[in-house]
Specification:
By secondary structure, this protein is of the alpha/beta class. It contains 13 helices and 12 strands. β10, α8 and β11 form a beta-alpha-beta unit.
Length: 330
C-alpha cells in the first residue's frame, strides 16, 4: 500500500467492515493471485499463523466481526483458537459461521473431485452445529445456512425450520447466505418463512459488488425487515483488486482510483459500504497488507457522483456467475 494512502483511525471500532476467512482456512480457493498471497507450503500451521496474523491486524484496526464456515477447511478451528488465546478481544468480537457445506478436499488443491459438498438437511445441520459449538465453546453469534438457492430445502423443510427456530430461541441470529444469479429470489423466499407465525430468518450474507448488483433490491427489503445484511465477495474474488482491475470492464474503477489516490480494492469495498442496506462488508484479505489496503475504504466514502461513475461496471447476473464458475481452485 502506498504511503500516500490515508489509514483508518487507530483503535476506533470499524463497524461497517468485517474479516472473512474463506481464503486462509484451506489451501485451495478460487480467489485470483493465491500463489503470491499464501505461503508456498500452505501447511496447516502456515495457514493457522496467517489466519491469526489477520485476526490480530483486523482487531487492532477496529474490526469486530469475523466470518467463517464449516466448509472453509480449518478456518473455524483457527478462529476458535485465536479467540481462546485472546479472551479480552473475544469478549467484543462477533462471530458468524455457516453450515450446509462439508469440506471434502482433504487439504489438497488439485486432484479433487469436489472441494466441498452442499447438503441442507437436518442431519447435516445437527452434525455441523455440534462441531461449531465444540470448536467455539459456545454458539456462534450469527449462524447461516450456506449458499441457499431458491430450490434449497432450507426454504421449505419444516423439520429444519424447527431446528433453526430452537437455535434462534437460544439467542443466535439465524440466517442464510446466497449465491448464484437468483440470489434475490432466495432472499425473498426466506423473508416469507415463518415458524409459529414468527419470521425465522434475521440475517443474510450475499454477493454484491460493482460487477454484480442484482441482489440489491431484495437486500434492501431484508434490511427494512430488520435483518443483518452482510456483503461478501465485494472484490469479486480478486477481479476488482489493483493487480487485476486492468481491463476495459474496470476502467471506471481505475480512473476513480487515479483521481482519488485510493486503491481499487478500497473503492470496491467503499462502494458496497455506501449501499444504504449494507450492515457489514467483508474483507476477504489473505495478507495483512491486503487487509490494511481494504480497510482504507473507511477514509474513502464515495459521493453519489462517484457511485454513478462506477455504475456501468455492473453487468448481467448470469454472465457474472458463469465467469465465477470458471475460476480455478488453486
Amino acid at each position: 500500500m502506498s504511503a500516500a494512502v490515508p489509514t483508518p483511525p487507530a483503535g476506533a471500532p470499524i463497524t461497517r467492515f468485517g474479516l472473512g476467512t474463506a481464503a486462509v482456512g484451506r489451501p485451495g480457493y478460487i480467489n485470483l493471485g493465491r500463489d503470491a498471497d499464501l505461503p508456498a507450503g500452505r501447511s496447516v500451521e502456515a495457514l493457522r499463523r496467517r489466519t491469526h496474523e489477520l485476526l490480530d491486524a483486523a482487531y487492532a484496526a477496529g474490526v469486530r466481526y469475523v466470518d467463517t464456515a464449516r466448509s472453509y477447511g480449518r478456518a473455524e478451528e483457527f478462529v476458535a483458537q485465536w479467540l481462546a488465546e485472546h479472551p479480552r478481544e473475544a469478549a467484543d468480537t462477533v462471530v458468524g459461521s455457516k453450515w450446509g457445506y462439508t469440506y471434502t478436499a482433504g487439504w489438497r488443491t488439485s486432484g479433487v473431485a469436489a472441494h466441498e459438498v452442499k447438503e441442507h438437511s437436518t442431519a447435516v445441520f445437527d452434525r455441523q452445529v455440534k462441531e461449531t459449538r465444540a470448536l467455539l465453546g459456545r454458539h456462534p453469534d450469527v449462524y447461516l445456512v450456506h449458499s441457499v438457492t431458491p430450490d434449497s430445502p432450507a426454504l421449505t423443510d419444516p423439520a429444519l425450520h424447527g431446528r433453526l427456530a430452537e437455535l434462534a430461541a437460544d439467542g443466535v441470529r439465524v440466517g442464510l447466505s446466497t449465491s448464484g444469479p437468483d440470489q434475490a429470489d432466495a432472499i425473498r423466499a426466506a423473508l416469507a418463512v415463518t415458524v409459529d407465525g414468527q419470521p425465522l430468518f434475521a440475517a443474510v450474507q450475499s454477493t454484491w459488488n460493482l460487477l454484480e448488483t442484482s441482489a440489491a433490491p431484495a437486500l434492501a427489503e431484508a434490511h427494512d425487515a430488520g435483518w443483518l445484511v452482510v456483503v461478501k465477495e465485494a472484490m469479486a474474488n480478486g477481479r476488482l483488486a489493483d493487480r487485476n482491475a486492468t481491463g476495459p470492464d474496470t476502467a471506471a474503477l481505475r480512473a476513480l482510483a487515479t483521481r482519488t489516490g485510493a486503491t481499487c480494492d478500497a473503492l470496491a469495498l467503499a462502494a458496497a459500504a455506501a449501499q444504504p442496506w449494507a450492515g457489514l462488508v467483508l474483507s476477504g484479505a489473505a495478507t495483512p497488507a491486503q487487509l490494511a489496503s481494504n480497510l482504507t475504504a473507511v477514509v474513502h466514502p464515495l459521493t453519489p457522483d462517484d457511485l454513478a461513475a462506477l455504475a456501468p461496471l455492473a453487468g448481467p447476473a448470469g454472465e457474472y456467475w458463469r465467469a465465477r464458475a470458471g475460476l480455478v481452485w488453486s
